[in-house]
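job 3f2a | input accepted
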Amino acid sequence: MTKADIARAIHGKVGGLTVREAAQLVDATFEILKETLGSGEKVKISGFGNFAPRDKRQRRGRNPQTGERIEIEERRVLTFKPSVILKELLNRKAGKATDVRDGAEDRRRERA
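job 3f2a | predicted structure (112 res):
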């Protein structure tokens, strides 16, 4: 799915927006996400998951083609942890007709 596909889907689900306005909304949303993650902050989207930048320290590695030892520079990577709701949606068995949110709410009550 591309940003254009997302914009068309938003246009189809939300009344009163043109495709162009939906595309601008999608672009603005992603810009905010990039700026937030770029500044080192986490992004939590309820029912979807958590994005978090993480710093990896410098380490020794190996070139798999030559076997030569190399130093891998420190860098920042992005991690994503899906929410329980998203995990259940992805792993739902075919033909199961339960609401994904019901299971998550049950687990929250059990933990409390």
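job 3f2a | The longest strand covers residues 49-56.
job 3f2a | closed
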